[in-house]
Every structure is written in structure tokens, then in C-alpha cells.
Amino acid sequence: MKIKLGLIFGGMSTENEVSVMSANSILKNLDKNKYEIFPIYISKSGEWYQYDNLENIEINENMQYMKKLEDIMGYLQSLDVLFPVLHGLYGEDGTIQGLFEILKKPYVGCGVLASSVGMDKAYTKVIFDKANIRQAPYIYLKKYKDQYTYIDKDFNEKKVSLEEAADIVEKEIDFPVFIKPANSGSSVGINKAKNKEELKKYIEYAGKFDKKILIEKGIGGKEVECAVLGNDDVMASCVGEIKPADEFYSYDAKYQNEDSKTLIPANIDEEVSNKIRKLAIKAFKAIDGKGLSRVDFFVEDKTNQIYINEINTLPGFTKISMYPKLFEAEGIQYNYLLDKLINLAQE
Ligand SMILES: Nc1ncnc2c1ncn2[C@@H]1O[C@H](COP(=O)(O)OP(=O)(O)OP(=O)(O)O)[C@@H](O)[C@H]1O
Ligand SMILES: [Mg+2]
User: Which of 13, 110, 213, 238 sees the fewest Cβ atoms within 10 Å?
Assistant: First the structure.
């Protein structure tokens, strides 16, 4: 009996297009003898569609093959395993995972808690602090109308003006700093500031994307990534390096600038690389991760110190994405990876 696999993609986040690319690769590489595949597309505005014609299917909004799903719950209920190939809000943040839990359906990847913690940069920081994994010093602000609230490490709150917020940052951390909306993905809303004027401008800008804002010390060094796979027995891939074409790995450098390069394995000492693998597994377990994640780090130039940057619970999954490439470098093929992830979901 073939496994009825629901492949859910698209989604209501800014990363809808990236998701379609990931889903296309996955669809092509799934073993059709093992799986009966049911592609499900979620549009940017949140409508769900099923596909009628499964011969040579193309994933796009070509309405010819797509039929609006009226009974979403019923349709999902009829499937055996669900594979959310969704990035960002409403896909990677625990919300859709909550729906799968209610339906009692096995699904690929992290559960509700790990997904939501991994999506919210402020809360990831809290968990990583607790796990004693080094990260860049940071300041956490909340925005309410034109007023800011500074939240200290003990979660005491203090109302501050933009000017006062910038003063706190200046006092606590050295420039350059990175300003990020807490729920950002694909670097949207993120900027690097070299002085107080830029800092204020970018705090205001980040506030357009999220009410929660993080300001972090910029770490000068290599940007490296490690992929993890498993539920209880977790394995880590080799470490890969990113060479952004821009001053940092901005949206443009990620998707539009072909001069951005990746290097597998990363140009770092074996000892550092082994530490990173261990830390990647530790970070994954600390947020209660399941299935897969890509864990991103910085290795500081002068000191070789490792700083964790973030964890992505549903990393990009095209054939040329970092996650599958890191495992491929270890001899684990893309289609094996898919089987493994589906097995882990059923576990
Ligand atoms: N503290 C820091 N020091 C140096 N560079 C940083 C720092 N924080 C972020 N960056 C740069 O900004 C980029 C985007 O930041 P980050 O990875 O936190 O955002 P993101 O939007 O969540 O990305 P993703 O799409 O991977 O989820 C990083 O890839 C890196 O190039
Ligand atoms: Mg990132």
C-alpha cells in the first residue's frame, strides 16, 4: 500500500515563492512507488487548493489543474502523512503544526513549540542563553504605537523613547549592530547600523515588520551552517559556509545576487567544525526540535569563537539549497533524505 502523502506548499508568508521552488524539487524526487502524492497549494491570501491532474504536475497558480479545497479538514484527514514545505509565518511558526496536531496526523518536521520558538528570534535567544550556547550580545525592544519598551534580561519592562532606546544600545553594545524584526525570515527588515543615527532609522524600519525588535552586536567573521536530522537520535551534517555578495546576507544577496557563494565544507579547522556539529544538535534539542533543522552560526575571525545565529526549522529545500547539499556532501542523497524525513514523521 502506498503512503498517501500531502505535500503542502506556497503559504501566506513573504517566502511563498521560495516554498514553491522547494516543493517542486521534493515532488520530482519522491519515490512514486512508495508514495501517492497529494499536492496542496496555499495561496498568499490563504486559500487552499488541491490538484486534479497528477500526471506531470506543474506547481503554479495555473487554475486549470487546481481546485479550491472547501473541506480542508476532511481532505487532510483522508491522508496518511503531511509534509509542510512552508517557510516563514503560518508555516514554519507552529500555527499549521497546531492544525495537524488537532487532526492527529503525522507530519514532517518540528512540532508546535519548536516551530514557534525557532521562528521568534527573541525567544530563540532566551532558550539558547539557557542552554549556554554563545550568541551575540543583544537588546530586546517592543514597539507600541510610537513608544518603545525596553525589556531587560530579567524581563523587567521600561518605557523609552527612540532616543533613549538608542542610548541603551550604545551603552551596552559596540557598533556595528544588526537590527532585526523578531519574526523575520529571508533577511526582510534586517539592517546593519554603524552609528546612532542609522540605528534609530533602522529601529523604526524594523518596527514596520514586527512589534518585537532585536538589536545585536555584529560579529565579524565567517557565516556557517549545519544541517541536523532526526528525532531522538540526531545526526549533524558537515558544516557549510556562506560568502554573501553583499556586506551581509541580505535578501538581495540571498536570492538576487549570483555572486553569493557557498562553500562545502567550510574553510574552518576540523576542531571548530566538530564543535559546531555538537552545538547544532544541542540547539536543536534545546528548542525540542524534531525531524530537521538548519542551524546557523558565526565563527569570529580573530578569536575563532563560535556564536549561534539562528535555527531554521523548515529550511530551503530545493536541490541546490544548503540543507540537502550539506547531507549530499556526506553521501546522503536527496531522495533518501525525503524517505528518512517521512519515516521520522511516522515515528
Ligand atoms: N549578529 C550578527 N553579526 C553579523 N552578521 C549578522 C548578525 N546578525 C545577522 N547578520 C547577517 O544578516 C543576515 C540575516 O540575519 P538572520 O539570519 O538573523 O535573518 P533571517 O532573516 O532570519 O534569515 P533566514 O532567512 O536565514 O531565516 C545573516 O545571514 C548575516 O549575514
Ligand atoms: Mg538567516
Answer: 238
